[in-house]
Specification:
495 residues; alpha+beta; two-stranded antiparallel sheet; 19 helices; 44% helix; 20% strand; globular
């Protein structure tokens, strides 16, 4: 199914049109043909280039492509990837996305942006790659070097990647966003988009005064989030003035809307209360309180037995450090007294303070936009689209299929090409899923769709011949009704 979609897009020829000059064929394949096979493999079964041939030999890919897949070694892919200049990847991605948007008739109006990082296993002593570096890893692997990937995609479901950019692992997302914005504008123009008709949605991790100034200076519209901590006065103002906003027949949120100058520009601000976020944050506070109380109980018992020998000032510093957690000072009150050289500790937990915290602070999300004519519901729905691009990035971290990591490459050029292969594989997999949903009434996810397609087997039947040589024919095993529909709409050959 993925191979058929690659053929529809003429992916191999498109790649060949953008690669550097050199030998047209390597091991009987052009660069475009080799990388198309790599993209199909990545979409169906994430493995290293060394593991490609053993996997492909168990599939019909070789028969479809007319290639002896056992010859496609890691060295073959290394040589073919080497011929793709990093500077050509943006133009190649633009040309491919333009074909997809035209074929699928997807509008370019509201787009979603986010960034994340992927850890690698590159050794610290490896100086051939400058991109991998240690930084704040979102998968908690701070001990490993990482690379970052910024991604912009359509709001459609499923999302279509429009743009990606690989960046150094030590760089913060907010800094990258400011540098990516001009490239995003160029990409939208190249795709035929009307910049004044495009709204970019991004999260609070990409928002700062200087990045927002860059957005304000351009024609793009925006819907973004601000950190609740930076908007305490607004949230205090909003709490008694919350009104219901109907998002759907099944969902109504408490919201507050105001138009105000922020960072030198007039913006529409929306404060909303997310019940799900509110409940999660309350559980988090309760867990922090429970841990603090357990530690205070231990300390209290030590002091009562006279086993704690530290001076009062040092102990007060340690207690303050322990209470630095999430809203602990609002809920816990600790009193440390010294009488005749003996320290005595008491504490109280205020449940009313926790309830008040929930009513007045927890679950608050602050949105800002320059789409003043949009309704409050439209603004909230646009921002919620952020979960779509976050889902794409989560998929690219799926170790079973479409995984971008771990990257088995040791130069920046290879890392750039590898990221392009993975994003393109996601694109093709998404297009297969989109077709199945639209034309076969398929209701499952991409992963369950691919699992379903994996169950379809191709059999080779050998029949005796009077001339002494067996005649071979190829058939699909009897499919289920769902598989029959998928075979039909996805253009899967039956012989």
């Amino acid at each position: 199914a993925v191979w058929q979609r690659a053929q529809t897009l003429d992916l191999a020829a498109l790649i060949d049109a953008h690669v550097a000059a050199g030998p047209a064929v390597h091991d009987g394949l052009t660069v475009g043909q080799s990388l198309t096979l790599a993209v199909v493999g990545r979409a169906c079964h994430a493995t290293s280039k060394r593991g490609f041939a053993p996997w492909a030999a168990t599939t019909s890919l070789g028969a479809l492509a007319g290639v002896d897949v056992t010859r496609l070694t890691s060295q073959h892919f290394w040589d073919q990837m080497q011929r793709v200049p990093v500077a050509a990847l943006a133009a190649l991605e633009t040309a491919l996305v333009a074909r997809v948007l035209a074929q699928e008739a997807i509008p370019l109006d509201t787009v979603l942006y986010d960034a994340t990082n992927f850890f690698t296993f590159l050794a610290t002593t490896n100086a051939r790659a400058a991109l991998p570096a240690r930084g704040h890893n979102k998968q908690k692997r701070h001990d490993l070097r990482q690379v970052g990937v910024a991604l912009c995609c359509t709001r459609s479901d499923p999302a279509i990647p429009l743009f990606h950019q690989v960046y150094g692992g030590a760089r913060p997302d907010v800094q990258v966003f400011a540098e990516v914005l001009p490239q995003l504008r160029e990409r939208f123009v190249a795709l035929g988009g009307d910049l004044e008709g495009i709204t970019v949605v991004y999260d609070k991790g990409n928002v700062a005064r200087h990045t927002q100034a860059t957005v304000d200076d351009g024609p793009l519209h925006y819907v973004a989030a601000l950190t609740a901590a930076s908007q305490r006065a607004l949230i205090t103002e909003a709490t008694p003035a919350l009104t219901p906003c109907v998002l759907s027949p099944d969902e109504t949120l408490a919201v507050y809307r105001v138009r105000r100058v922020v960072w030198g520009a007039e913006r529409t601000l929306v404060v909303l209360v997310s019940p799900r976020l509110q409940a999660g944050q309350r559980r988090g506070v309760e867990q922090h309180v429970a841990k603090a109380v357990a530690w205070l109980d231990q300390l209290q018992a030590l002091l009562a037995r006279g086993r704690q020998r530290r001076v009062r000032a040092a102990l007060e510093v340690e207690i303050a450090a322990r209470l630095r957690g999430q809203h602990l000072r609002d809920v816990l009150t600790v009193d440390l007294q010294e009488t005749d050289g003996a320290l005595r500790l008491t504490y109280t937990v205020d449940p009313d303070a926790l309830d008040r915290l929930e009513r007045e602070w927890l679950g608050r999300v602050v949105l800002m936009t320059d789409q003043h004519a949009w309704s409050t519901a439209e603004i909230i729905r646009a921002y919620r689209g952020q979960s779509v691009v976050e889902g794409v990035l989560r998929t690219l971290k799926d170790p079973l299929r479409l995984a971008l990591r771990p990257q088995y490459h040791w130069t920046d050029q290879k890392l750039h090409v590898h990221a392009w292969l993975c994003v393109t594989a996601y694109l093709l997999a998404t297009l297969v899923h989109r077709t199945a949903v639209r034309d076969a009434d398929y209701a499952g996810s991409v992963d369950t769709l691919f699992t379903e397609l994996t169950q379809i087997r191709r059999a080779t039947v050998a029949r005796a011949s009077t001339r002494g040589r067996a005649r071979q024919t190829h058939h699909l095993e009897t499919p289920t009704p769902l598989q029959t529909r998928l075979i039909d709409v996805l253009g899967i050959p039956t012989t």
